[in-house]
User: What shape does this take?
Amino acid sequence: MGSKGARGWGLGAGVLFLALAGCGSETRRKDTAASAPAVVVRTIAATAEQWPAGYEAVGTVRARTAAVISSKVMATVLEVRVQAGDRVREGDPLVTLEARDLEANYRRAEAGREEARSALAEADQALAGAKAQLDLAKATFGRMQELFDKKSISNQEFDEATARRKAAEAAYQMAAAKGAQVRAKIAQAEQEVQSAGIVRGYAEIRAPFAGGVTARTAEPGSMATPGAPLVTIEREGAYRLEAAVEESRVKSIHAGQPVAVNLEALGRTLDAHVSEIVPAVDAASRAYTVKIDLPALAQLRSGMFGRAVFSSGARNVLAAPAAAVTERGQLQSVMVADGGYAHTRLVTIGQKSGDKVEVLSGLSAGEKVICPLPPGLADGARVEDHQ
Assistant: This one.
């Protein structure tokens, strides 16, 4: 045999030795697991069940009531009193703005009101004087009328008395009009004070309702302008799922229809109902937006991913406990108890319903799934089913 044949023979022998050694170590591991004391476990049989069948649509959780808070005046932001995630009550202060200009306008309106009020006393005095002159002119005219009827005075004297009465009446009417004008100015000044007070109140921006702060877009020193968002608030306890439904499916959906909504972030399925179908199709997705009111739940947050299942009958599934499923990367597995030993089974999981999952492959009905799974339980270990 040549040197090359000797080297080839040596390499083959080495590979064979490693393979035999690996088989031996695997066998020893299984023998060790089998010879260890039996682990007491609990099992739940995989069962064939009927689950509701239906159309599934994905969507996003949104608040039913949300407010983007902005300023009604242009002013510098002095203080922002909330952070994203804070809870606020109705009327709680959110943002404080620079109010010196607003305060000056209010003081100016107050000064105008006081000036108008001061003119009222003068107008009232003028009206009283005009009233006295009118009364005198009327009395004089009455006496002159009697004398004129008796032919005791001339026509000239009677005409002069008549003229004085008319002049007094005109002066009185003018004084009364002046008083009414002053009172109108006072009422206008009161309105200006009230309006300036309202505008001054815009410097303190408060929560319109109780809820949670979801966004803070203003910082002290920035300029607040009308319409620019400062803080965003959502009313707590009032959320809905906005799901995209294919246009071919929407004809079977109606307002008030019950819907099962699965929220993966919470690991829960909620009983909900359709509240609204937006009567417009999205040009990009060719789907309608269906709004589904969710029950009040403290853990709900805007932006959560959800699946809405619209029921359309029932279907047969193989169900197993969700807690028995182990996930390692893309692989999903369960451990079954068979003949007193634990065996790992790779499975394919479908939908989830409550504390159960749909098993698409890897299990058969009646097989006993170990649940809960004891820590460190090895494949091939001896197990004892605790009933």
